[in-house]
Amino acid sequence: SGLRRQKKLPQLFERASSKWWNPKFDSNNLEEACMERCFPQTQRRFRYALFYIGVACLLWAIYFGIHMREKQLVFMVPALCFLLVCVAFFVFTFTKTYARHYVWTSLILTLLVFALTLAPQFQALKPISGSGDMSNRTPPADPTDTCLSQVGSFSMCIEVLLLLYTVMHLPLYLSLFLGLSYSVLFETFGYHFRDETCFTPLGAGAVYWELLSKAFLHVCIHAIGIHLFIMSEVRSRSTFLKVGQSIMHGKDLEVEKALKERMIHSVMPRIIADDLMKQGDDESENSIKRHSTSSPKNRKKKPSIQKTPIIFRPFKMQQIEQVSILFADIVGFTKMSANKSAHALVGLLNDLFGRFDRLCEDTKCEKISTLGDCYYCVAGCPEPRADHAYCCIEMGLGMIKAIEQFCQEKKEMVNMRVGVHTGTVLCGILGMRRFKFDVWSNDVNLANLMEQLGVAGKVHISEATAKYLDDRYEMEDGKVIERVGQSVVADQLKGMCFYLVLG
To answer: Where is the composition biased (Basic residues) (predicted)?
Structure first.
């Protein structure tokens, strides 16, 4: 039955606890985070309350000094003293102690305000005696001798109650207890201690009707205060939860964006990927601007289906000179794959090519693709660089060392044959599906021939690449014709010089 009642009760806000008399989250961690985030607002509202109370004390002190002919100091001194108390509280709000004990601070200030505002109820310190018949009393001879009228004192009571519920930031049950106690004390003291000069002749029955009407007004004020208190708590916690959810969604979007960027950067160079994503963002912004600046009549119309094809990216091809191209092939791959399953072979290739990818990043080369057991990359493309030849040579020598380490770890007998050539390439992205960054030119084909005519364990380079190198590398004549024969050498290789980089 308890669970049924909880289901029937409306929830004040999302993730609200079942304790309606103390609105808060159902999670202590969430509640603590909310209190921490909302503390600046609570602190600011408390300072506003101190400012309001201080101004009220100053105005009351001026009023007592001008209006009253007797007992001026009796009322002026407490008002001015409480003004100093408000100043002290205001200074205290800037300390770290207030941040730890702001609830106790609000409670102390509330009790002090109660004491100060209940004091004028003891205007004559002379209780009503007898049967309570006030019909024989006469109006005051001089109205300036009075302290506060009934309307003025009741207005002050309303101000105190509204301050309690709106800015003191005490728990609801404590605010309700203090507010009801204050109302009872206010009316009790106001009835038993009346100034003989501050009354209007009324019958005995009219007094009780007056008390009944005041009680009804107090109930209305408490209802308004509770409503304001609950709505303030609901609004602050709902806002906190929505902001938190928005931040979490924003972080999720950032993670998704980073994942998308990593995926795009894995299939194409960073400079081209960034350019494509920037163009996509610009097109999205222009589309939003066109939609926002369209006329209201056009907004009401149902948008027609676009018949033009949606292009993922504009076609873009770039010619770059002075680019070094590296082709590498695994020598002994066929023998290694003869006695292995497809799953084991793919695992070995993934391990080996993963080492090459890390080496490619270290040597500032740009990986193009893998074709079976062939791995090829470039340097100086798509971003030109002066040391493109050094990058490819270091990449080739590093691949030879990497495969030697691979053979020691995996107990295999394979080697690398590497060819490097320098020339001009066309680079870009072709196709609409399963697209990839690639390079094309006769120099790319020549680099492939350099690899095919190379020697295992050495980097075979052309004369065009050797021009960009200095004496830091030990080289020897490639002797292509002596090794492969005149008939094998293609026409485009005739008359060219080739070298083997030993290290």
So the answer is: 289-304
